Amino acid sequence: MKKINAALFVIIIFIVTFSASDSMASPHTRNPLLSPTPPVSIPFLINEYYQDIDDLDLVYIFPHHPEYFSRFDKLYSDWMDKLKTVDFNSLDVSDRVDFILLKRNIQNDTYDLKQDEKDYLQYSYALPFADNIVALQQKRRRGQRPDAMATAKAFNEIQLQIDKAKSVVTKTPLPDKHLLNKTIEALEELRNGLKNIYTFYNGYDPEFTWWMEKTYPVTDSVLEAYSKWLALRPVAKADKAMDSSGIIGHPVGLDKIDQLLKSEMIPYSPDELIKIAYKEFAWCDSEMLKASREMGFGNDWKKALEKVKEDYVTPGDQPQLINHLEEHAIAFIDSLGLVTIPPLAREAWRMDMLSTQEQKFASYFLGGPEILIAYPTDEMNYESKIMSLRSNNLGFANAEVYHELIPGHNLQFFMGRRYKPYRRVFSTPFSVEGWAFYWEMTMWDKGFDNTPEKKIGSLFWRMTRCARIIFSLNYHLGKWTPQQCIDYLVDRVGLERASAESEVRRSFTGGYGPLYQLAYMFGALQMHALHHEMVDSKKMTDREFNDDFLHENTMPIEMFRAIITKQKLAENFTTQWRFYDK
């Protein structure tokens, strides 16, 4: 073995000693999130942030409880501090976009957490046993051996607390339907947490198993019964949006709408958005009259629409029609070189059928990796079958198929899994639905709709998107009920009543955000305006513009604009692009 130079040896000892002492430093004296680290890419930070959330979600399994609020408030605060250590001015435009959107998402997560915490304070009295269950879970998640008799006593006390809770809730009903639903959701989380405790120890810890043989099943059944009991309770303030339609949603109000518009980088007020919708409606009306006259119905466009609705294929032939319409659309796009469609994207799509129950929420096609077909099933009654046939006629399907498949959702998702997939956490319906509806506008502009019947089909969808803006904002601002929304779709656009009901049901109870329905039109208008700015000015070709959009993945469209126009974004960026100037 070679001798080590004495000076070098001293240096090695110093390094090892320093490293050891540093590694032994108390974790309470330093914040690992703020520890000096080599420069990292913003995409790395995005992945790290969401991995932190996923990891903590596996430990803190009660999202509607103070323990969760406290831990995640710290996480978000730590991450906001971490972002302060990033040298924003050294970032290129793409990283600046990612930084701004990551910061926005953390701020949104903080906002939502605080709102959940405020809500919890209003319904926690209905869950007096929550702290006991959380305390048991805290021991269980680290495998602490329980005092079996004491744990059985705690389970039994939960039963007693439920009896008292019923008495309190009867005297003091929960504030409204929204908070009642959140109470039931929190209760189910607690019930699952109790099951998690039981299944971990049962059959492994003999004493626990002996004590719990009867106690746990009874406690679980009491929790289940309490959940069902709560679901039937009246609330203190009836929802004004409840009516004979049977559709019960949750109007969020003006403050929430404004907050969401700011987050989505839409610099318009709700009133301005509604006015724009009426302007777009006026364009649709004008074009509808032209198509109606071409069909020989004069200015009675609703009669022309009725004629289009009667042109449908027989049950069993709809899948074949979809294949034909998709091939026709792709051939048209290829002939003009509008966007690159990879060979595998042309191959890797499929279709499935929507069930009778699913069509109560979606009476038209849905799409993405696959296209989901709405068409009559044998379970439907006569009226429902006729409505489904009329709602999925050839004219409507002509635009809807490529909206859902290629170049719409299917192509966008295909490319999004391959190009900058980390940006999927910035997904927004203004990008997703906006892209698909932008293609409806593009195909119209390029002359794809070359018959009055096809034009009426496309205009029906454009009118529907206008109506979605109007009815969804009026609903969430507390001005319209679901029944008024249904009637508006039937009277103003010409939807079949069952289709209008499913449209409104999906909008307010299908898990979609309050801005989702207006995102179709406004996302498309943003894309259309940006296309005019970049393509009509000859700065880019159609193919370059559309390919770039797909390669950047989903994000607020103003951020895509910043990338392709190479804007030098400020760290405190706020939305300012007034994209609609008609």
Report the count of strand segments. Answer: 2
Structural class, from helix and strand content? mainly alpha
Summed up, the helix count is 23
- Percent helix range: 55-70%
> Uncertain runs with pLDDT below 50, 5 residues or more?
1-30
Shape: globular
**Cα separation of the termini:** 83 Å
Please state how the strands of the largest beta sheet are arranged side by side: 1-2
- Percent of residues in β-strands: under 5%
Radius of gyration: 29 Å
Largest sheet: 2 strands, parallel
Order of helices and strands: HHHHHHHHHHHHHEEHHHHHHHHHH
Question: What can you see in these coordinates?
Answer:
The chain is mainly α and 582 residues long. It is 65% helix and 1% strand. The chain contains 23 helices and two strands. A two-stranded parallel ribbon has the order 1-2. Helix 4 crosses helix 7 and helix 17 packs across helix 21. The longest helix has 31 residues. The chain is globular, with a radius of gyration of 29 Å. The N and C termini lie far apart (83 Å). The N terminus is likely disordered.
Lay out the secondary structure.
Blueprint: H1 6-23, H2 42-59, H3 66-84, H4 93-123, H5 130-140, H6 148-171, H7 177-201, H8 206-231, H9 254-263, H10 270-294, H11 301-309, H12 318-336, H13 343-347, E1 350-353, E2 370-373, H14 382-391, H15 394-404, H16 409-416, H17 429-445, H18 452-476, H19 482-493, H20 497-509, H21 516-536, H22 542-552, H23 557-564
Parallel strand pairs: 1-2
Helix pairs in contact: 3-4, 4-7, 5-7, 6-8, 7-8, 10-11, 10-18, 12-15, 15-17, 15-18, 17-21, 18-19, 18-21, 19-20
